[in-house]
Amino acid sequence: MVHSFTFPQEIITSIQERIEFLGRCLNDANTQDKAMAEIVELANSRQISLNQLREELRQYRYKFDKLDRLLEEFIIKCKQGELALILFVKYNFLLKEIVVDKYWYFGLEKDNRETEKELILAHVNFYQEFKTQAELDSSYKDDYIVLETLKHVIQSMIKASLKVNVLSEEEINALDLGDINPQETEVMLTSLASTKKWDQVYRNLA
């Protein structure tokens, strides 16, 4: 079922358009007064200069391009019949880093919030579907790693959504996620996804 996980193309396009828009504004002060005012406000809220904001946007673009390449590689592996579990883990933690943990403020623009909401709901739906499927299957290692990885991402997305009013407390409660506190760290999940060995302790945890 991991093979069915894909990042919606419309969300990728939306984020890429947002990156390009911000880049044009930062490189051309005459773009649009309203747009430039938004950029200045963002820099002020971060208490950084426009040059520092430009550097952060450059890093954001670089990591998002890397994210896109990881997704392409993941899809190719899946079409070849490979599970590509390690790519799934790397992709999701990079997504968590750039969209949620480090660069969430680039998504503050009002029109982009619906895209962020779609991104959260897409992950929640996949998590719930996969969890239901996993309960009917006995593939401990793969199921456990996928679910633990998704817990990290969803938990961070929800926290970020509250900062920018993408989702309300009521909407989050309505998702009925149950306990999504991950039991494994990113390092451990990356290690487990990279090896064919599966310790009995983790079988019992799963």
UniProtKB/TrEMBL annotation:
It comes from the Bacteria. This is Uncharacterized protein. It comes from Nostoc paludosum FACHB-159.
